[in-house]
Amino acid sequence: MRGPKRGSTWEWSAQAASDEIDRFIERRAQEAEQANYAARSWAESVEKFNFAQAAERWEQAIQYHRAQARRLRVTMSALAAEHERAARELAGD
Fold first, then answer.
1. Are 9 and 24 in contact (CB under 8 A)?
2. Contact predicate 4/11, CB 8 Å
3. In whole angstroms, what is the distance from residue 66 CA to residue 53 CA?
4. pTM above threshold 0.90
């Protein structure tokens, strides 16, 4: 593609220069495409990670509220029973 070397420079024909420019443009286009693919892949993986984290937090919230309901049920049942006992005692039952 390049012409004969003269001194410390190459002589380029118009076609050789055009071909070299085309190769440069193609190489840059491929690099840009690869960078875009990498960015899209990264964004997709972040989205999947965030979705998984949100689902895990959701499940933890559900488990927390279920456990809290169980604890309150036990505590409140015991408290209600204690008040019923005190009322019976006061009423002389």
1. no
2. yes
3. 20
4. no
More confident residue, 4 or 42: 42
CA 81 to chain centre: 49
Rounded Cα gap, residues 44 and 81, in angstroms = 55
DSSP per-residue letters across 49-77: HHHHHHHHHHHHHHHHHHHHHHHHHHHHH
pLDDT of residue 2 exceeding 60:
no
What mean pLDDT comes out for the span 53-60? 97
User: Could you tell me the CA-to-CA distances from 1 to 5, 12, 23, 37, 89 in Å, in that order?
Assistant: 12, 8, 12, 32, 109
Q: Rounded to 5 degrees, what are φ and ψ at 30?
A: -65, -40
- Tokens representing 50? 């965030």
